Amino acid sequence: MSEIAVSPPEALFTLATDRWTAPFWEAARQRRLTACRCGNCGAFRMPPTPFCPECRSQEVEWPDLPGTGTLFSFSVVRRAITPEMEGHLPYVPALVDLDQAPGARLISNVVGCRLGELRIGARLVVGWRERSDGVVLPEFRLGE
Ligand SMILES: [Zn+2]
Fold first, then answer.
1. Residue 122 Cα, ligand 1 centroid: separation in angstroms?
2. Residue 101, phi then psi, degrees to nearest 5
3. Is residue 6 in a domain?
4. Domain count, the chain
């Protein structure tokens, strides 16, 4: 497979935040990768939820993370099922285990690599893509 993974079309994702998710997206605007950490027991959880599944606390922290991770799982989307997807293939939805945030697994995309280079366990580095609507999305490239 020599095709290069690209970013998915903007039309597939509309950002809607609430008090639990807004800090993640504000950090993304500043090109900082973060994850929700319980302010009481320190357990990470992504996506952020109102209550810690470990201790039920609603206290949360948003620490800066190094922006690296490991590819836990991925899929390759090769077929346009909507007209908006034409010209944005193939893209690679991925689950990324974030470094320094045990238990935080981010849904994102891997871009800029040949599909044949994708491996479970591959090291990843975050990059940022600013969309036409100003939303800044994390997306990952293969790293060291
Ligand atoms: Zn907790």
1. 29
2. -145, 65
3. no
4. 1
Distance 49 CA to ligand 1 centre (A): 11
Q: How far is it, in rounded angstroms, from Cα 82 to Cα 91?
A: 14
Query: Domain of 90?
Result: 17-142
Between the alpha carbon of residue 63 and those of residues 13, 96, 99, the distances in Å are 25, 17, 12
pTM given for the model = 0.93
Cα distance between residue 21 and residue 42, in whole Å: 18
Q: How many residues does the chain have?
A: 144
| Residue 2 lies inside a defined structural domain of this protein | no
For position 57, which CATH number holds? 2.40.50.840
CA of 43 to the centre of ligand 1 (A): 5
Residue 62 CA, ligand 1 centroid: distance in Å: 13
Residue 45, in any domain of the structure: yes
**Centroid of ligand 1 to alpha carbon of 120 (angstroms):** 29
List, for residues 70-100, the tens digit of each pLDDT value: 999 999 999 998 998 898 999 999 999 999 9
Q: Is residue 8 part of a domain?
A: no
In angstroms, what is the span from residue 2 Cα to ligand 1's centroid?
A: 44
